[in-house]
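Q: I have 294 residues here and want to know how they pack in 3D. Can you give me a structure?
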Amino acid sequence: ITSQEVMTINNIKRSNAFYNAISRAIKGGEYVIELGKSTGIYSMIAVDKGAQSVTKLVESEIIKSATKAAVERNKHSDKVAVVVHQSGKSFDTKDITLKADLVITDLLSVSLSNVTNLLRIIKLSKQFQKQNGKSIPESVEVKGALLGESSEINDLLKVATVNGYDLSEFNKILRKNYTYKLYEKPNIISKAVSILKVDFIDSEEIEHREEYALMESTATQICIGIAVWSKLNLFDGISYEENPTIDNQRSYSTIYLFERPFKIHSGQTAKIKYLINGEMGAWFEFIEFLNGVI
């Protein structure tokens, strides 16, 4: 488990949203399967809310050992079984003898960089779900907004003068349109729009998608790229959004840089082209302004 994933695990507001969704979904006596990289906490919550039994699938023996220890420490080992399932490999269905009334999937991170992995997890979720069974989350949405400059981005992505030597020439060969992660609050300068939505009940294959987004600026600044984040529509109206502008709802921010930054005025709308490839990730490009001063 990475340090970024630990930040997500420790996010109380996020955990509370899952807690409320599980509480609403469990009616009593259900068989539950939990997928994903979580600690097994949602399996234990499901039991406490009335589930008859839970199978927690993990991706390695190391995670299995830690999860079993946590389950035993919290006195839930009589109803929570921990089973290894290696990511990307076919699952030995003999370990799962029943279809689940509820499948809980904890996506510690949702990334446009590997949509194929997201769809694989959703496929696995559907594989173990009863007909007309329930899913937490019900869908995942990726949102995006225009990104302005900040000191963190300048330190991360720009070369200036070091020890009196001008090294700015290296800015010309900086790798653009690539994924970077920010840990400080990003400088968001537009209203958010939906980039991608994937349904856990009725998902579709995403091999290659080319679309356009219209983003209305809320400030007059230099726009350098796009910040993206996820919203989990958990269950029956309960959701959690990793809003990068709110301290207790963010861990780190994923950004994509434009090949050429541009100045945008407050109230202007920028037309952004984006490509999503299941294996290669995402790519964003500024096309034109649709209104206002250029």
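Q: Anything worth noting?
A: The chain has a mean pLDDT of 85. The CA atoms of residues 160 and 168 lie 5 Å apart.
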